[in-house]
Design a protein that fits this description.
Elements: H1 2-18, E1 21-22, H2 28-42, E2 47-59, E3 65-77, E4 80-95, E5 100-111
Parallel strand pairs: 1-2
Antiparallel strand pairs: 2-3, 3-4, 4-5
Length: 112
Amino acid sequence: MKLLITILTLGLNFTLLANQITHSTYDLRHQEKITQAISNKCNYFGNFFEESKTINTIKIDQGITDYQFTTVIKIVSTNGSRHAIAHSEYLDQYDTNLKTWGVYYITDIECQ
């Protein structure tokens, strides 16, 4: 039983690490959305590296702040390397699924 729990825990940890973007300071929820969107749209798989990013701050009334992100990602695999550009947003609203504040959306993925 301990072996089964250890294997499941290692598998979960590997899955979480697979969705991380090297050199990224983004929240893990944001990184996961970006890697999933790139994998789904571009069919790129491998190690993800953040090469550059632009963050635009959008001030809404009454202290609410949203953000728009443009992130250049390099994906390295055994077949070589490719790039993708992720356009995403952070909205200062309540996430009813995760029971926390802040929701990340992917607005566009450019496969290169």
